């Protein structure tokens, strides 16, 4: 799935309240690290093993209401949500941490995610 931009607080709330896990990239045009990790985020969003997760972006300067809602002050920040609850955070342009967050979202998408974590199953390992 390609990434999609979120254009309003109402849309943001609707998206994060859904049953499908979402990972949101909070970025800014003036942010150098955001420019470095942005293409990595887009490539990860297109990988078939992450098909159970939706990927979105929020431009911090264009969506101050959303930024206030989630209280993000450092960029880039990646947040994962499911059913209206935050399930994880990754701050900074660190591909390994972003991949771990996406794996957490993938696990949340699986109906057996609680069983798998109880059994100690390993997350998907791959290069960013």
Topology:
Layout: E1 4-5, H1 9-16, E2 22-27, H2 32-45, E3 54-59, H3 64-70, E4 77-82, E5 85-91, H4 95-109, H5 113-119
Parallel strand pairs: 1-3, 2-3
Antiparallel strand pairs: 2-4, 4-5
In words, what does this structure look like?
There is one protein chain. This protein has 128 residues and is α/β, with parallel strands linked by helices. The protein has a single domain, classed as Glutaredoxin (3-Layer(aba) Sandwich). 40% of the residues lie in helices and 21% in strands. The chain has five helices and five strands. It has helices spanning 9-16, 32-45, 64-70, 95-109, 113-119; strands at 4-5, 22-27, 54-59, 77-82, 85-91. The protein has a five-stranded mixed β-sheet with strand order 1-3-2-4-5, covered by helices on one side. It is globular and about 40 Å long. It starts with a strand and ends in a 9-residue tail after the last helix. Residues 113-128 have low confidence and may be disordered.
| CATH structural architecture | 3-Layer(aba) Sandwich
SSE class: alpha/beta
Using the CA coordinates, give the radius of gyration: 14 Å
List low-pLDDT spans: 113-128
CATH class, anyone?
A: Alpha Beta
Question: What is the tally of beta strands?
Answer: 5
Q: What is the helix tally?
A: 5
Largest sheet: 5 strands, mixed
Shape: globular
CATH-defined fold name: Glutaredoxin
Helicity, as a percent range: 25-40%
CATH superfamily: Glutaredoxin
Overall mean pLDDT score? 89
Strand order of the largest sheet: 1-3-2-4-5
First-last Cα distance: 16 Å
Report the portion of residues in β strands.
Answer: 15-25%
Please trace the helix and strand order, writing H or E for each element.
EHEHEHEEHH
| Tally of structural domains | 1
